[in-house]
Amino acid sequence: MNPREQLAEHLSFLTELGIDGVSRDARWRRAGADDRVVPRLPGPSEVEGGPTETTAHTLPAIRTDLGDCTRCKLHRLGRRQIVFGVGNPDAALMFVGEAPGRDEDVQGIPFVGRAGQLLTKMIEAIGLRREDVYIANVIKCRPPENRNPEPDEVASCEPFLFRQVGAIAPTVIVALGTFAAQALLKTQDPISRLRGRVYKYGGAQLIPTFHPAFLLRSPDRKRDAWQDLKQAKALLDAAAAATIDPQA
Length: 248
Ligand code: URA
Hints:
Layout: H1 3-16, H2 26-29, H3 59-66, E1 86-87, E2 93-97, H4 102-107, H5 114-125, E3 134-137, H6 151-168, E4 172-176, H7 178-185, H8 191-194, E5 199-201, E6 204-209, H9 212-217, H10 222-243
The chain binds uracil.
């Protein structure tokens, strides 16, 4: 795609999101590599809700512990493969979704179907690339017929998500939809009540927003999601600015 086509695609997504003007805020007009320089946070032992036992704290070690998982019934309900997570293990920004769907089950990569394509556009709309961030789900196996995850499945699988968050130690976590927000915030509140605020998750700041699959069904909520993404970007920029050495 040439730069002109790239720009046209970017602008069409902003229009899709309900953005019809250009911000005068310098932070939003600046783009490029510097925006992606962000600090790492303290390790997993300092992340609330992270592992309490002595466990290996790297993503490969967590994947090894997960193994060919049979901890819940999803392993015998038609899953093709475990969908662990994808992206930069040192990401400052982490997205957490619900569970793999059909395309993710086939490819073994989170968010590659229609909802995933929208998520990719959302990431690019804040000046980042998919490779810059880390993407994982609460549930690592596809529920049959894409039904909602059940409480026992969440209970079996969420410790691996918590360990992934601990390993990555992101600056900002964006929880996509009710299941991700509820698992990370230990609440039963729906996403409509949770979004619009920034929460703490250990050393990270957590922003709940609507799931891209919901946004595909309810495009009028894209504007809210855009506000949430701008908030995430502003937090990343503030953290990056705080680490810049004025003497350098
Ligand atoms: N929806 C999710 O929550 N996760 C995926 O990986 C794909 C769709």
